[in-house]
Write a structure and sequence with these properties.
The protein is an alpha/beta fold and about 280 residues long. It has helices at about 15-30, 45, 65-80, 100-130, 150-170, 205-215, 225-235, 250-275; strands at about 10, 30-35, 55-60, 85, 90-95, 130-135, 175-180, 195, 245. The strands form two sheets. Strands 3-2-1-4-6-7-9 form a seven-stranded parallel beta sheet, sandwiched between helices. Strands 5-8 form a two-stranded parallel sheet.
Length: about 280
């Protein structure tokens, strides 16, 4: 009997949260998995689940040498990569004025430039295979933003913008791109993976509410990361994979409302918008 080729998933930020759940799901499905994180010791419990299916590698998405090395080792171990999940990232809570430039740049370096760097490292492999999928983990905050989430949303808006271009560029090559927009899921994003900026009193009634919300939701989120992994896998297997996949009722509702508000403003101001032609 001919051996069936196992899918190979390459996951960044796999030491906890979504990344860990995605890896555990992939192992359960019989897939081979390359798990990466800045601290490889945090990946040992996942590798122990199925050592023959899992390769655990130290990789910081902001370190180009580590990215190159991890991709080479992944190919050496499994011979191919089918799915890249750009999951590594963290959050910032703070008003725009409260967020120093170095913190804003660091947010973009990890959440945006890091994901792009890993994607660029894998694209030659996907093109050679004439197959592959790029899963960019965005957020409800990649479609809309709130007071206090400006830096985080900026990084997610950026990844969504480049993903749309990637999808158009790669579709003719047999490579899929999907943007995942989760709402509240039980991960570490609101805990250890969230940074809080120094407070300015003037923003207590706006950003202050966001701070309280973010701190209060840690551990209380309703979303199940394991179900998120299954939903992503289902979308990837579909003939028509969606460009965007909302996960969670809160995400679906908020993005629907945001879209309706956008259309309402468009309709209200459309006459002004189109009355901008040069006089003939």
């Amino acid at each position: 009997m001919e051996n069936k080729v196992k899918k190979v998933w390459f996951i960044t930020g796999a030491s906890s949260g979504f990344g860990k759940s995605f890896a555990e799901y992939a192992v359960q499905q019989g897939y081979c998995v390359v798990i990466t994180a800045r601290r490889v010791d945090k990946l040992e419990t996942i590798k122990a689940l199925a050592p023959d299916q899992v390769e655990a590698l130290k990789m910081d998405v902001t370190n180009s040498a580590e990215i190159t090395g991890a991709v080479k080792m992944a190919i050496s171990r499994f011979g191919r990569i089918d799915v890249l999940i750009n999951n590594a990232g963290y959050g910032i809570v703070g008003a725009v004025e409260e967020t120093p430039e170095d913190e804003l740049r660091a947010q973009m370096e990890t959440n945006f430039f890091g994901a792009v760097a890993v994607t660029q490292a894998l694209l030659p492999i996907f093109r050679q295979q004439s197959s592959g999928a790029i899963v960019n983990i965005s957020s409800i905050g990649g479609q809309l933003s709130f007071a206090g989430f400006g830096a985080y949303s900026a990084s997610k808006f950026a990844i969504e913008g480049i993903s749309e271009a990637l999808a158009a560029e790669l579709a003719p090559l047999g490579i899929k791109v999907i943007i995942v927009e989760p709402g509240q899921f039980k991960t570490d994003l609101a805990g250890p993976a969230m940074k809080y900026m120094p407070e300015i009193t003037a923003y207590k009634d706006t950003v202050g509410q966001t701070r309280s919300f973010a701190k209060g939701m840690h551990g209380e989120q309703e979303g199940d990361p394991a179900k998120a992994a299954a939903a992503i896998d289902k979308a990837l297997a579909a003939v028509h994979t969606p460009l965007r996949l909302q996960l969670g009722e809160d995400s679906a509702n908020a993005i629907r409302q945001h879209s309706e508000n956008l259309l309402k403003d468009l309709a209200e101001w459309e006459s002004v918008a189109i009355n901008t032609k040069l006089n003939v």
